[in-house]
């Protein structure tokens, strides 16, 4: 690989030349280590760029700049063609018996030659003896053009796809020099170390898993746009697991899921079911669910516990919540410590002092016509 430059000078002198050029086969994606220190209510995000390149040369002690811009997509909206609706023609179809081309590229060819060249991988010389209708060739041309445009847009969109929809374009200057060998492997460069002050929340759905999960509500007070990407989660220097961070612009609030906290003990008792007397034409079934939880930490915490209640989809099925009381008639209010959500789940906000335990009780009745059998199905909402 060499560059030839012709210089002309009126007198003897010394000069220094700097070359700037564009290469392909290089990409990057974001990755994070999130370290949470619960006693200090602090969070540290180590922001990495995973750089890989196969450009044909090693980048030694390079000043690296990472960007989410996509020059391959272009800066303007692509033009639309007019779609015309008409009756199918009954005229005889014209055929092309052979197409011969040579030399130049596809862009200057006629539509027929261009369609043939697309299908043969862009070869410079081609010869076809098979008879083909002209409209089929033109249709193949349009399909191949659309396929190529889609493929190019997909390749150009690889980087931005990791960036999230609310961050249009951003650029990072890596603060120190790095060497990235030409091996196609991912190499980690540090973009920034960000200190944040989270608000911790606990959430539990004991019917699905008897654990309290720690969640952090954080405002991105840094000047860095956080792109969507995989994260390693550490809480008090213990590896918790892996998660995905959603995109967050500067000053935007986001949430981090930090895994199960085994310092909060949860016990989900078997549900008690009983058939009551009811009327002669109806059957009444009572249900009781007990949930026990205990805080073994040396500090007070608040846990949101969520338990679903069957929602009837038949008018003849009646569901009445007995305990906690008054939930059937109250409107949903997030500020209330006990509430019934729109998805028909009872939500408790439970405050636990250090070492304290509490018991939550849910009781409800289901009334249905005698002789009918209940069947439960599960949906997302």
TrEMBL record:
Low complexity composition-biased segments: 143-153
Domain of life: Eukaryota
A Pfam family annotated for this UniProt entry: DUF4139
Region forming the signal peptide: none
InterPro entries xrefs: CHP02231 (IPR011935), DUF4139 (IPR037291)
Location of the region described as Disordered in the Swiss-Prot/TrEMBL record: 104-129, 143-166
Positions of the DUF4139 domain: 17-369
Biased composition annotated in UniProt, kind: Polar residues: 117-126
This protein's name: DUF4139 domain-containing protein
């Amino acid at each position: 690989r060499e560059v030839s430059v012709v210089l002309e000078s009126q007198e003897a002198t010394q000069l220094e030349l700097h070359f700037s050029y564009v290469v392909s086969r290089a990409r990057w994606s974001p990755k994070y280590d999130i370290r949470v220190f619960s006693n200090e209510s602090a969070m540290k995000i180590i922001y990495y760029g995973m750089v890989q390149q196969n450009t044909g040369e090693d980048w030694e002690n390079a000043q690296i700049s990472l960007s989410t811009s996509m020059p391959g997509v272009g800066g303007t909206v692509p033009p639309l063609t007019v779609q015309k609706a008409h009756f199918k023609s009954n005229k005889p179809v014209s055929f092309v018996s052979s197409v011969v081309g040579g030399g130049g590229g596809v862009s200057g060819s006629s539509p027929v030659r261009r369609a043939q060249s697309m299908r043969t991988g862009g070869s410079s010389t081609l010869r076809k003896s098979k008879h083909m209708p002209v409209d089929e060739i033109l249709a193949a041309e349009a399909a191949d053009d659309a396929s190529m445009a889609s493929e190019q847009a997909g390749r150009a969109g690889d980087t931005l796809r990791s960036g999230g929809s609310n961050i249009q374009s951003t650029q990072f200057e890596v603060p120190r020099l790095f060497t990235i060998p030409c091996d196609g492997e991912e190499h980690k460069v540090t973009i920034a170390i960000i200190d944040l002050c989270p608000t911790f929340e606990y959430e539990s759905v004991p019917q699905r898993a008897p654990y309290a999960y720690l969640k952090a509500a954080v405002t991105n007070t840094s000047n860095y746009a956080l792109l969507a990407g995989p994260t390693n989660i550490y809480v008090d220097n213990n590896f918790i697991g892996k998660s995905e961070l959603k995109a967050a612009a500067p000053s935007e609030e986001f949430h981090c899921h930090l895994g199960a906290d085994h310092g909060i003990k949860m016990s989900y008792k078997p549900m008690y079911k009983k058939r009551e007397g009811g009327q002669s034409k109806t059957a009444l079934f009572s249900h009781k669910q007990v949930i026990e939880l205990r805080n073994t930490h040396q500090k007070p915490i608040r846990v949101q516990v969520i338990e679903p209640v069957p929602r009837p989809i038949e008018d003849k099925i009646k569901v009445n919540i007995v305990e906690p009381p008054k939930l059937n008639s109250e409107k949903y209010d997030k500020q209330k410590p006990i509430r019934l959500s729109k998805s028909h789940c009872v939500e408790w906000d439970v405050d636990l002092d250090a070492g304290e335990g509490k018991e939550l009780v849910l009781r409800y009745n289901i009334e249905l016509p005698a002789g009918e059998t209940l069947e439960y199905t599960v949906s997302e909402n």
